Amino acid sequence: MDQGLKASNLDAWPSWTLGVGRLGWIADQGRHVASSEWMGR
Predict the structure, then answer these.
(1) Residue 24 banded pLDDT, cuts 50, 70, 90
(2) CA distance linking residue 8 with residue 5, whole number of Å
(3) Beta-carbon neighbour count of residue 35 at 10 Å?
(4) Measured between alpha carbons, how far is 9 from 1 in angstroms, rounded to an integer?
(5) Whole-model pTM?
(6) Interatomic CA distance for residues 16 and 7, integer angstroms
(7) What's the rounded Cα separation, in Å, for the pair 35 and 41?
(8) Domain of life here (predicted)?
(9) Rounded to the nearest 5 degrees, what angle is found at the Cα of 17, between the Cα atoms of 13 and 18?
(10) Can you give the three-state secondary structure of 1-41, one letter per residue?
(11) What average pLDDT does the segment 4-24 reach?
């Protein structure tokens, strides 16, 4: 029982973490671009 739960949990992890990581990366890029543009003015 526990083993099956663990397996399905592991299956769900990669896409979830990738999605969150991608959102975080996009937010980071946006912040970086905005701050560098603001600094450049």
Answers:
(1) confident
(2) 5
(3) 10
(4) 12
(5) 0.41
(6) 15
(7) 10
(8) Eukaryota
(9) 115
(10) CHHHHHHHHHHHHHHHHHHHHHHHHHHHHHHHHHHHHHHHC
(11) 68
Encoding tokens for residue 21? 């990581």
Helices (H) and strands (E) counted in the chain, each on its own, are: 1, 0
Residue type, 16: W
Q: 9 falls in which pLDDT band (50, 70, 90)?
A: low
Length in residues, the chain: 41
